[in-house]
Design goal:
Length: 801
């Protein structure tokens, strides 16, 4: 009889099952055929005696081994399904207790994790991932990857929503969506994400990997933000003609002096074409040797088609061609502005809006003010790439949308014509007032809507200098020259220049006295060449016209620009209310913001008792007497004066000036359409009508201060248009005075207001009025008249009006 191996007698479930199970599994994996079961058992009970009794014992254990093996395999498969790797794995089995799966705790863990993500509470998040995940990722690495995603996407927050929850073995699988609010990509949702939560000694924890940030982020995969810049929108004038073209063709003009048949004739031809002064172009030619190729300027194809043959004949130019953001000459750089690389100190702000670091952006003017519309929508894509740059998945994508075009109120021909007229005027007046004048400004305003038809500041500059794709060989030197030039070519004198107004302010004084009833326009005054203010505690003051004007009423005072008349008005206004005149001036738009969007502007100053007190002084009659003739501490901008002139012309409505009519993509509805705005000032209509008539008589009657300029012009133009205006010659310290002319036209049913200001030149009638004539010629398409001969011979002896 065979004897049973003592091992069987010593076997117990509590001590022997783990070892038995282990050995059985090992043996089972080696021998899988059905007929080898008995040998498996004998491998387990090595050295035993086999008989009927032992066979029963073997069968007993065979049944239990099958049960235990099946249970063990279930545990193995469940453990293998956990990405955390925290389950039992072959060939060994854990001898610990079976983990407890708590679905409610799993949900709570996931929600705490996601709430903490929205709060950027990475410590709490790290505490909710499994021990094995923490072994694989240090807390510093875990925090860094989440912070990098938050910063790179410029996240402003996340929200989440939970979906289906299912249990698979010991793993709780939670489906959820996360919505990201990104400063770069906008708002996007990564849907149907999966989170796996498993039991650990710490409770239910997340079997975490980088795929819990974005699915597919594993191994050496990289998260990448890709940007696509759209085409920048164009800028058009009021008639749809191009002012700035993103895909424009520019023709840089180069010459070699040895090849130029007639240098003087060539320069004379190029001055109006390039919109530069004669002396400046002469200086450019003189800087180079006769055999040196040098750059003189840039034109467009349209201009070349018109004057190309003449240029070839006189200059023998060498033309290049380049595609770039092309501006129409140098007609409106102070208004349009220019593009360039993102300025230092603004990179973070632009990058937060999705701009690549090397983007070109609007630096000034309309280009800057309407940057968002002109730029369009920058295309962005968030994607995962494998180490070999193969695309794994696109998480979100926003297609680039082309920039919208901006349609302005400017008339290109008028703007360009005025710019050329100023360049020509400074060239012609080289022997006289141009020697002392640093610059000028001209504004043309629609009196009914406030639309800016032209806004010219002189001297000008070439916006192409600031474009990285500049045709200039050394643009940096030219930019520095612009910045250090005492003439300040980068300053927009129309909105940023602050000047005393001189006798143009008498229009405000007349309206104030008549509208308030303090000094009606019917008031008579003997306007002699001097005014004695000693009875009022002032001094003796002298008029600009020592012979005197005789007895005048209020209209005559405007026509003749009689200072003594206004000094007498000043006494009456001061006695009535020292604030009255300053308040009327502000009411008419002087010394207050104009409401113009898009461009920087100075407010200026209308002095009043409060301002005087802020300077540590007391307001006196002398202050009012200075203000009534536009002197003292008064500082206004040409644009403000244009608003004031328009308000008189349109019967008392103060318009808000504007530059942009609409913004739209071609073929689509506009995203912006301007609605003109005007405030009715409530002024006496009869007073305004009388003031308008007096302004017309300034150019029509023999004693009018601008009659000698306009009388021959009316004859030359066959009275095609009658202009009404007011001259001003404003004292400017020890320098030559500023010349002003504020006007509207035509006399009947006024349409436009024109303001001309020329710094440190001559009397307003001698310089600003002739320039007003040229503006009217360009606007109405009239023949061009000659400039005044006095620009060559010299102005009158300067007296302050």
């Amino acid at each position: 009889m065979r004897r049973i191996n003592p091992v069987l007698h010593r076997f117990s479930l509590t001590r022997g099952i783990p070892t038995l199970l282990k050995n059985a599994i090992l043996a089972w994996t080696k021998r899988t055929q059905q007929g080898e079961r008995r040998s498996v058992i004998f491998d387990v009970f090595a050295g035993g005696i086999y008989n009927d009794e032992s066979a029963k014992i073997v069968e007993f254990f065979m049944l239990r081994v099958r049960i235990l093996v099946f249970a063990a395999l279930l545990l193995v498969f469940a453990a293998c399904s956990d990405s955390d790797g925290g389950g039992i794995s072959l060939p060994g089995l854990s001898s610990g207790p079976t983990p407890i799966v708590d679905q409610e705790e799993a949900i709570q863990t996931a929600e705490t994790f996601l709430d903490s993500w929205s709060k950027q509470d990475y410590n709490t998040m790290y505490g909710r991932i499994s021990p094995n995940a923490r072994d694989a990722y240090r807390q510093a690495d875990f925090t860094e990857v989440y912070q990098s995603v938050w910063n790179d996407l410029r996240l402003q927050g996340i929200t989440w929503s939970r979906g289906q929850v299912v249990s698979q073995g010991t793993t709780v699988i939670i489906q959820y969506d996360v919505t990201f609010r990104s400063g770069i990509l906008g708002e996007f949702t990564d849907a149907k994400r999966t989170m796996r939560v498993i039991p650990t000694d710490e409770g239910m924890r997340i079997a975490w990997s980088k795929m819990d940030i974005f699915d597919g982020w594993s191994g050496g995969a990289r998260l990448r933000i890709e940007r696509t810049l759209p085409n920048r929108g164009n800028i058009y004038d009021v008639n749809g003609r191009t002012l700035a073209d993103q895909n424009g063709v520019a023709l840089p003009v180069y010459v070699v002096k040895n090849e130029v048949p007639d240098i003087d004739s060539c320069i004379s031809l190029l001055v109006p074409i390039l919109g530069v002064e004669y002396d400046d172009l002469v200086a450019t030619f003189s800087r180079y040797n006769f055999d040196t190729l040098f750059y003189v300027g840039e034109i467009d194809q349209e201009t070349y088609q018109a004057v190309g043959a003449e240029m070839e004949s006189l200059c023998r130019p060498r033309l290049d061609e380049r595609r770039t953001r092309r501006y129409f000459g140098t007609a409106a750089p102070h208004v349009l502005g220019y593009v360039g690389y993102i300025p230092a100190g603004e990179q973070a702000e632009y990058e937060s809006r999705g701009y690549p670091p090397d983007s070109l952006v609007g630096i000034s003017g309309i280009e800057r003010a309407w940057e968002n519309e002109l730029r369009g929508t920058i295309g962005n894509r968030l994607a995962l790439y494998a180490v070999n740059d193969e695309l794994i998945r696109v998480i979100t994508e926003k297609q680039a949308q082309p920039g919208q075009s901006v349609y302005m109120t400017l008339d290109r021909d008028l703007q360009d014509g005025i710019q050329g007229a100023l360049a020509e005027a400074y060239s012609i007046a080289g022997p006289t007032w141009a020697q002392t004048s640093q610059g000028a400004a001209i504004v043309v305003l629609d009196v009914n809507t406030g639309a800016v038809k032209a806004m010219v500041s002189y001297p000008t500059f070439d916006p192409a200098v600031f474009n990285p794709d500049s045709p200039y060989l050394d643009p940096g030197s030219l930019i520095q020259a612009y910045q250090t030039d005492p003439a300040r070519p980068l300053l927009n004198r129309a909105t940023q220049g602050r000047y005393p107004l001189g006798s143009v302010f008498k229009l405000v004084t007349s309206v104030t006295g008549a509208d308030s009833g303090v000094v009606p326009l019917t008031t008579l005054n003997n306007c002699i060449g001097r005014w004695d203010g000693t009875p009022y505690g002032d001094r003796v003051r002298t008029d600009w016209y020592p012979e005197g004007h005789g007895v005048l009423d209020g209209q005559g005072a405007i026509i003749n620009s009689c200072n003594p008349y206004y000094w007498s008005m000043g006494v009456a206004l001061q006695n009535a209310d020292p604030y009255m005149l300053p308040n009327y001036a502000k009411k008419l738009g002087l010394g207050v913001p104009s409401g113009l969007r898009n461009l920087e502007e100075e407010v200026g100053r209308v002095q009043d008792p409060d301002w005087k007190a802020s300077q540590g002084f007391t307001w006196s009659l002398s202050d009012t007497l200075n203000l009534v003739i536009g002197q003292g501490e008064l500082e206004v901008t040409p644009l403000q004066v244009a608003r004031m002139a328009a308000a008189i012309a349109n019967d008392g409505k103060l318009v808000t000036p504007y530059l942009v009519e609409k913004v739209q993509l071609i073929g689509e509805d506009p995203s912006y359409v301007h609605s003109p705005q005007a405030t009715d000032l409530g002024l006496n209509k009869e007073v305004l009508a009388d003031v308008r008539q007096a302004m017309c008589d300034v150019t029509l009657t023999p004693s009018g201060t601008a009659r000698f300029i306009f009388q021959p012009w009316y004859e030359y133009q066959n009275n095609a248009v009658i202009v009404c205006g007011k001259t001003g010659t404003a004292q400017a310290g020890n320098n030559q005075p500023h010349a002003w002319f504020a006007a509207f036209a035509p006399a009947e049913n006024p349409q436009i207001a024109i303001v001309v200001m020329v710094e440190n030149s001559c009397e307003g009638s001698e310089v600003a009025a002739p320039l007003t004539r040229r503006v009217l010629e360009i606007y109405y398409g009239l023949p061009k008249s000659e400039w005044p001969p006095l620009w060559q011979s010299g102005c009158s002896q300067i007296v302050v009006q």
